[in-house]
């Protein structure tokens, strides 16, 4: 009975919830031929409309609730992007600071702290907020710290240290092939100036301490909601441990509670990047019967479909099921029509039923 109660408590705390109800920020979809290069140059982001940018007007310094943003002290703008088919979140971080603090070792560094919960599983992501005391601190660390939602302390800039602390037991999430980063700046510690940081990360539904071999990436799809938030830790004195904490969430403890993140939506392509184009996928439902399910994935407004299954038969359904008589390789073609014209997509021997 005791184990059942503990499990119930864990499930109750894992129900998805988000801070700032009614607020949904947008994640820009980059066309597949315009993926930003991670080189610290913001030119690739010029195609992103201004209404995707999140600035200081959306942040609060919850260490000083009455404090208002002052662009002469700190001015930050963040854009977030994604690419259909890749489980990556791209970030452009552009900031002016009147005092950049990054000369000391350790965490005394201006920091962009980012937390992501790709599947909205919610719940705690650090042992401090574990829902039950049944777990020892060690067990909590290795079972939950950064496993279902990830926290990145990103150094702005990073000098003589890793670009980020992946807070938990799974440091591989900040390394290739799961992340990459580049900076551009020309100031020294204690000086003012502008910094550009480009990076991408891979959100995980599960990123265990045992390594990436069992990790499960969050599958990113159009219109999906994810939990995301960030805070800017701004030091203005190299000798002081105090710093501002400019927070996109309205809860200071969002750094360890995925329920306190903010909603972000993975947007479709902006209209100027959408093409009228035939495309399709398939799945072999039953190999013994050679039953194949075809799915139309064309883009643009389609009014008619014509499938050539490569065996002398055809269909005008949008998503047909087809049974082949022979076990061999087939050339399958989909032709679509719409107000914008016609388009054709042929795939050679993808459908293999040998």
Q: Which structural class matches the secondary elements? A: mainly beta
What spatial form do the alpha-carbon principal axes imply?
elongated
- Our measurement of the CA-to-CA distance between the termini, rounded to an integer number of angstroms, reads 53 Å
Strand content: 35-45%
**In this structure, how is the largest beta sheet organized?**
13 strands, mixed
Tally of domains: 2
Q: Give the ordered list of helices and strands.
A: HEEEEEEHEEEEEEEEEEEEEEEE
The CATH top-level class label of the largest domain? Mainly Beta
Number of strands: 22
The stretches of 5 or more residues where confidence is low (pLDDT under 50) are 1-15
Secondary structure: helix percent: under 10%
Write down the CATH topology of the largest domain. Answer: Immunoglobulin-like
* Average residue pLDDT: 93
Radius of gyration: 24 Å
Number of helices: 2
């Amino acid at each position: 009975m005791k184990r059942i109660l503990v499990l119930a408590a864990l499930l109750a705390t894992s129900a998805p919830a988000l801070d700032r109800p009614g607020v949904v920020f947008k994640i820009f979809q980059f066309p597949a031929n315009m993926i930003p290069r991670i080189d610290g140059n913001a030119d690739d982001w010029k195609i992103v409309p201004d209404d995707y940018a999140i600035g200081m007007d959306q942040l609060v310094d919850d260490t000083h609730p009455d404090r208002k943003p002052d662009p002469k002290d700190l001015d930050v703008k963040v854009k977030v992007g994604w690419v259909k088919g890749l489980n990556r979140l791209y970030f452009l971080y552009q900031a002016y600071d009147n005092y950049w603090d990054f000369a000391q070792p350790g965490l005394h560094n201006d920091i962009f702290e980012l937390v992501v919960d790709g599947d909205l599983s919610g719940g705690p992501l650090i042992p401090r907020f574990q829902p039950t005391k049944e777990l020892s601190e060690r067990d909590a660390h290795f079972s939950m710290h950064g496993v279902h939602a990830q926290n990145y302390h990103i150094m702005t800039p990073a000098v003589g240290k890793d670009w980020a602390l992946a807070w938990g037991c799974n440091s591989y999430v900040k390394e290739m092939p799961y992340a990459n980063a580049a900076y551009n700046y020309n100031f020294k510690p204690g000086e003012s100036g502008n910094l550009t940081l480009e990076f991408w990360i891979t959100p995980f539904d599960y990123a265990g301490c045992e390594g990436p071999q069992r990790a499960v990436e969050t599958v990113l799809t159009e219109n999906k909601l994810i939990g995301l938030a960030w805070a800017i830790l701004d030091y203005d004195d190299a000798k002081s441990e105090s710093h501002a904490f400019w927070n996109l969430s309205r809860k200071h403890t969002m750094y360890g509670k995925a329920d306190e993140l903010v909603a972000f939506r993975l947007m479709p392509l902006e209209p100027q990047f959408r093409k009228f184009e035939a495309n399709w996928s398939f799945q072999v439902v039953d190999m013994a019967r050679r039953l194949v399910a075809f799915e139309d994935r064309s883009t643009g407004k389609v009014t008619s479909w014509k499938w050539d299954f490569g065996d002398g038969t055809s269909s005008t359904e949008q998503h047909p099921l087809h049974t082949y008589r022979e076990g061999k390789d087939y050339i399958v073609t989909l032709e679509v029509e719409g107000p914008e014209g016609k388009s054709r997509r042929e795939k050679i021997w993808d459908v293999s039923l040998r």
